[in-house]
Amino acid sequence: MPNTIIVDTTINQAYVNNVNNWPTTIQGDGITTLTVTIDSIIFTGPSNNYYFIIASDHITIDGTVNSITFSGMTSYIGLVFNGTTPEDSYNNININNLKIINDINNLSTLANYAGWITQQLFGIGADDYSNIVNNCIIDSTATINGDECGGIAGAESELTINNCTNNATISGLQAGGLFGGNSYGQGSTNFNNGIISGINAGGIVGGFNADVNIDYSVNTGVIGGTGAGGIFGDLSSGNAYGVTNSGPINAFGAGGIYGTLSSGTATDCVSIAIINGVEAGGIYGTGCFGEAINSYSIGTIGGTGAGGIFGSAGVGISKSSYSTGTIVGYYSGGIFGTQSTGSASNSYSTGPIEGNYSGGIFGGYSSGADTTSCYSLGNINGIGAGGIFGGYSNGCNSNRCYITGIIGGTGAGGMFGGMFRGFSNGNSLDSTISTTITGTNAGGFFGQTCSGIAQNCIFNGVIKGNGSGGIYGADSIDALVENSTNNANIEGTNAGGFFGYNNTYSDYAIHSTNNGNITGINTGGFYPQNSTGNAYNSVNNGNIITAGAGGFFGQSSGGTANTCYNTGNISESSGGIFGQSSGGTANTCYNTGNISESSGGIFGQFSTGTAINCYSN
Fold first, then answer.
1. In the 8-state DSSP scheme, what is residue 128?
2. Torsion-angle region of residue 252: left (phi > 0), alpha (psi -120 to 50) or beta?
3. Reported confidence tier of residue 428, pLDDT bands at 50, 70, 90
4. Which DSSP state fits 15?
5. 500 is a domain residue
6. What is the domain extent for residue 607?
7. Structural domain tally of the chain?
8. Terminal CA-to-CA distance of the chain, rounded, Å?
9. Is residue 62 within a helix (H) or strand (E), and if so which, with residue range?
10. Share of the chain above pLDDT 70, in %
């Protein structure tokens, strides 16, 4: 019959070789601790009966850093069994100082849902995670191959794992370096150095609804499994505190700490790895809805649609978090990846924004996302890129945000990248930008072909890009500027203090002021040439230096100015409200600026527009 241990015992190779001893039951009095000490031993298959059955509380299994080698065992179920229901699980079971090795000349494999040290459902229902595994090592030979397997604990277990290390490759679906899938518990000061190649697997905790809290732990293993995480696998709800990932994030939708679709909170966590995976994230993988607090990523964000903190489709929350890596991938973001709908506050990025349609905070194609008191410092060089939101984003809001980087990308924007859409949903509120716009058709706040609302916004700097605008880039549609100010000199051809080239009749500037001097060819204090937009209750104080320009509209424009006035000096053939050859309408407007030869207080030379209740001093 299998043996029962009732007193302190040492397990040596002679004990192992007696097949009648297995499986071995360990049963103490349930009050005092019964200790089983393990020498260096080898279990040789094909039998899978080499395991211990826990039959009482207060049992310790201690390897004193000795090794257990498994040889030729197929679908091994785990070293220690501790119940399958709350009724037959025991408390205060401690397993310490074991090293698990796999015989490379006669390899063993794990069964699905198993762990090398504890079996599936170990400690289920035990008191306050009172069962503890401490200071154990999984050797690189002991591959974690089965579905939802764990290097230490099998799936659906409840326990604490501290000071343990996994060095083995994690190849099983939703497997974990220490905890198996769908587990519960906690862990501290653990390490994973093994390659994470399993789909939705985790370096420390397996996937599939695992609820394990992890602190002060580290992953260095390469994250290669689709949807995998450096610490947690997919669908994880456990929290991470003080956790670090340095393993390169190479797989689609993977995360430096959390795998895909996870919801845990990451506090004071760090990813220092390059993010190469498509739609991957430095902390969270794709589709996550967790909360990142005081966390950061410093690796280059190279994957298409990737994010420094959240991967694609992130619906989570970023608080006081940041990224410093260069944002290279198309549609990628410094905090959130592409197609995200989350929110960010007091968060920022410092890396250059090089990827087309990428963003300093949110990647391209984001929808309904919100930012408050966020900023980006990197130069914005990607086509259609944005300092806060990437291109093609929709219905997003930016409140009290700013950038400092040069806006150099074609169609780029300080807040919103190009192709931004969404009537009255794309809002930039109470924000100030101080920079230089050099990109063609770019905008200080909104990039090319944008619609939205800019309220209480200020642009300082210089507008040099052809077709660019201090607030909106070229081709704006249904765009509103309200209670805003441009202080930048307007130097670019076809540029405007508020709107870029080729704006439409549905664009409006209300209660706004231009203080920038107008020096560029075919420029205007509010709108450049050929404009059809509207200006209400607004002021131009900038000097109109370029011939043919206008304080509000550049030459050949047909827009409407209502209750507006100009105080700037007016150069040759220019106009205080409209530039030369314009046909727009000025209603209740006036000019107090000095008028040069052939210029006009309201309309420039050769204009055919209509002036109603207007005058010029």
1. G
2. beta
3. confident
4. H
5. no
6. 527-617
7. 1
8. 113
9. strand 59-71
10. 99
